[in-house]
Amino acid sequence: MTPTGLSTDVSTTARRRVLISGASISGPALAYWLHRAGCAVTVVEKASTPRDGGYPIDIRGTAIEVVRRMGILPRLRDAHIDSRRCTFLDADGSQVASVNAHAVAGSVEGQDLEVRRGDLAAILYEKVRDDVEFLFNDSIDTLDQSGQEADVTFHSGRRRTFDLVVGADGMHSHTRESLFGPEEQFHRYLGYCFAIFTMPNTFGLSHEVMMWNTPGKAAALYAVGDHDELHAFLTFHQPEPPFEALRNTDAQRDLVATVFAGAGWEVPGMVNAMRDADDLFFDTAGQIRMPHWSSGRVGLVGDAAYAPSFLTGQGSSLALAGAYMLADALAANRDHTAAFAAYERDVREFVAMNQALVDNGAATLFPTTARALEQRNTMLRGLVTMPSAPPRPAHSALTLPEFAPTP
Ligand SMILES: Cc1cc2nc3c(=O)[nH]c(=O)nc-3n(C[C@H](O)[C@H](O)[C@H](O)COP(=O)(O)OP(=O)(O)OC[C@H]3O[C@@H](n4cnc5c(N)ncnc54)[C@H](O)[C@@H]3O)c2cc1C
């Protein structure tokens, strides 16, 4: 499909040099649109390749329009997982309810997409890799914007000068920390930690999710199609964020094993698989809330600026929509200060609505008390006959402008 939007006129102005830190979702999406706007784009990623792994993610509402305009909607439809059922289990593994997966995920059947996070990252990377410079195995060490440009020293020792720098380096963004200070002041901890990894599908599961719960703990097995691999997910309530474990993989494995010791169903096997997993992703459920998303010539996009947490299922959709809006603002405004201001003005309400989903009951899948768990189970039994949930207004609350030409 031919991407829509106006073509940009770059013949009369010097090409803006933009450095993006992070090659996951928001970074490559921003790179694509900035290239369309005539910028010379470099992406630096600390990993050696685009990182695979992670739980399946959702692309919904406004973000569907972004990927359609990028021309990757057909590929993403091919990668769509199409989960059909979600079966909830109690402490000993007995079935509580088995419901249409869309009814609990808040997705619109037939419209919204659910893809492996690694598949989305790979499709975005393939879309831009021939037009954009990628520097893998590297990261920004120092960033000096005291002059008219941004002078960057990389960890590898190379030095380069850019007109703009954008941090697309995730919830624990180094770019944000170097500009705005420690993460703690912007991090809203939501009381949960989670561990995600893959393990063999020895259960014969297909296109479905099995979720086991006790108060404050959940274990899920997520079968992506008929693959011989499952995505395993262990989440638990933890009143204070375990900052130490965030920095140490062994401590993460020990913490998860301790929390789930003695648990029923297939949890002991999952914990063993976690011990051996080479793709473990551990993090806290939290949000990033900042008063501003830029400082001087440096801006933030995606989780680095406004992570909504996995509890909303909107991280990738915000990253895609935010990348489009930032590129559009930069294409429309040669003055970066005006561009960053327009980006914030147009995107902030959309972000706020999506971050607020956690306060509107999105976390009810993981109750922390026996009473709340029973209430949730009663609610789930009521969903058994429901085909799909109504769309959430927050998912489509942002209307995308036609992509702006460079002034
Ligand atoms: C491997 C992985 C697995 C994930 N799994 C899940 C999941 O299961 N569930 C979920 O809800 N969310 C998950 N996420 C987060 C999810 O991708 C984001 O919420 C969302 O897609 C927003 O994307 P983003 O590109 O803004 O940030 P992220 O996806 O977090 O990407 C940030 C990128 O920046 C890179 N990076 C970090 N620091 C630096 C640095 N200093 N220099 C250069 N590069 C840097 C990272 O390696 C990563 O590629 C995962 C992210 C990753 C990287």
Automatic annotation (TrEMBL):
InterPro entries per record: FAD-bd (IPR002938), FAD/NAD-bd_sf (IPR036188), FAD_aromatic-hydroxylase (IPR051704)
Domain annotation FAD-binding: ranges: 17-345
GO molecular function, one term: FAD binding
Domain of life: Bacteria
Chain intervals for the UniProt region annotation (Disordered): 388-407
Protein name listed in UniProt: FAD-dependent oxidoreductase
Source species of the chain: Streptomyces rapamycinicus (strain ATCC 29253 / DSM 41530 / NRRL 5491 / AYB-994) (Streptomyces hygroscopicus (strain ATCC 29253))
